[in-house]
Amino acid sequence: MNSKFESTREKDITCSASQAVIRGIASDGGLFVRRDMENLKINISELKGKKYTEIAEIILSKVLDDYPEKNIKYCVENAYDKKFNSDDITPLVKVGNDYILELFHGPTSAFKDMALSILPYLSTEALKLNKIKEKILILTATSGDTGKAALEGFKNIEGIKILVFFPNDGVSKVQEKQMITQEGNNTYVYAINGNFDDAQSEVKKIFTDEEIKEKLKKKNYSLSSANSINIGRLVPQIVYYFYSYMKLVERNEIVLGEKVNFTVPTGNFGDILAGYYAELMGLPVNKLICASNENNVLYDFIKTGTYDRNRSFYKTLSPSMDILISSNLERLIYHLSKNDNKYVKHLMAELKSNGKYTVSQEIKNYIDNLFYAGYTTDLQTSETIKNVYNEYNYLLDTHTAVGYNVMKEFKEKDSRHKNIVLATASPYKFSKAVYESLFGENNSDEFKIMELLNEKTKVPIPENLRNLKNKKDIHTSVINKKDMKNCFEVILWLL
């Protein structure tokens, strides 16, 4: 018998894994979760020597258990192929006495490729498994990387259209160019005058709008998401935690069963939540280190137990983390409250009405046991990029630099365990900030700076970014956040 996924807010709203992938978000606004995640133990000794794809098949088959193994194998083999420019898929690089897990070797040079290369296959297989004839409209808000990775993953896939909203002037010029030049007969992209939280909030409203659902139904479409609110986005991210751990074992850097620390630069709490799921499934984790930039709402939450989004919003050198509403935190609270849907619903209502909530002391104790939090200012981010390059000849992007700095801070308190820092993007996606951190201010455009950075560091420019400047702008509309629903209505009319 296959397991059921349920809403974080209502245990009676349930579906299978494949149905959760199709729906993206529960009808009550909650997120789909498995009640029994801690029972899905992986025998890590059996992972030794296995390739990334083999570990992916094991983990995805265990969590997404209504997919036949042959279907999972098909999805994995098609996702992690020549689109990635490394045979390891996610190379683990030793930098000094620590390790950088490079998650940016996919088609858009960001860690989102790890999940969004496979989500289109999981989605289409889910439609077949459930004998669903409806088409899918993917609706996604992005702080930069999700948008391009989702657009690229779902491009020209029959039966699926994708609509992406991103904050105007809230992403790097490279990220923006990647999205507005996106080709494909099924892609729609809009910049909004607002930040990521504005975009994400409006998208969530659309997902729970019954009138819109009815209009979609008449068009033979249903809504889904490519954000990490979709469980199909989240589960593939568990894989690289196990893979990187096994690499340390195979290199004799640790013994099997020895605990390690993972540092994750995060805004929406999805990437680090995947690490929490890995720990539930048996991965030996000492600490999950949550690294924030100056939008440090997660830092404050982990330190105090109070989540408070009522604060100033900052545009930083690490724009993909410029987020104050961390959606996936809802899933963590669900698990730490021992699957108490009513409690989660109460907290989310508090967040909606007051912009904040405080968890119980019991939950706070769980958090203290597994998590550590730190944050990095823009000045520290630049200094970290420069120091790591000068000392180790290794080039960090601005988000990974946030993580690296917080990892160093933790090591001063506890240096007993090996440290893996998740590198979330190529430095060339943020070339201006990286270049100026190393060599001082440069007034050239970001694409010229990309060339200069390559000349001075000899770090290769990813192929997908090399000729980006010359690509034709296709999606040039900029709208106000209040017009997002109207924009969506226009897309409905075009379907």
What is the topological layout?
Elements: E1 5-7, E2 14-15, H1 17-23, E3 32-34, H2 52-63, H3 69-79, E4 92-95, E5 98-102, H4 113-116, H5 119-129, E6 135-141, H6 145-154, E7 160-167, H7 173-180, E8 187-193, H8 196-207, H9 210-218, E9 221-224, H10 231-234, H11 239-250, E10 260-265, H12 270-280, E11 285-292, H13 297-304, E12 306-308, H14 329-336, H15 341-354, E13 356-358, H16 361-370, E14 371-375, H17 378-392, H18 398-413, E15 418-423, H19 431-439, H20 446-457, H21 463-466, E16 478-480, H22 484-494
Parallel strand pairs: 5-15, 6-7, 6-9, 7-8, 8-16, 10-11, 10-15, 11-14
Antiparallel strand pairs: 1-2, 1-3, 4-5, 12-13
Structure overview:
This protein has 495 residues and is α/β, with parallel strands linked by helices. It has a domain at 92-109 and 234-464: Rossmann fold (3-Layer(aba) Sandwich), CATH 3.40.50. It is 44% helix and 16% strand. The chain contains 22 helices and 16 strands. It has helices at residues 17-23, 52-63, 69-79, 113-116, 119-129, 145-154, 173-180, 196-207, 210-218, 231-234, 239-250, 270-280, 297-304, 329-336, 341-354, 361-370, 378-392, 398-413, 431-439, 446-457, 463-466, 484-494, and strands at residues 5-7, 14-15, 32-34, 92-95, 98-102, 135-141, 160-167, 187-193, 221-224, 260-265, 285-292, 306-308, 356-358, 371-375, 418-423, 478-480. A 6-stranded mixed sheet has the order 4-5-15-10-11-14, sandwiched between helices. Strands 9-6-7-8-16 form a 5-stranded parallel sheet, with helices on both faces. Strand 7 (160-167), helix 7 and strand 8 form a beta-alpha-beta unit. The radius of gyration is 21 Å and the shape is globular. It starts with a strand and ends with a helix. The model has no long low-confidence stretch (mean pLDDT 95).
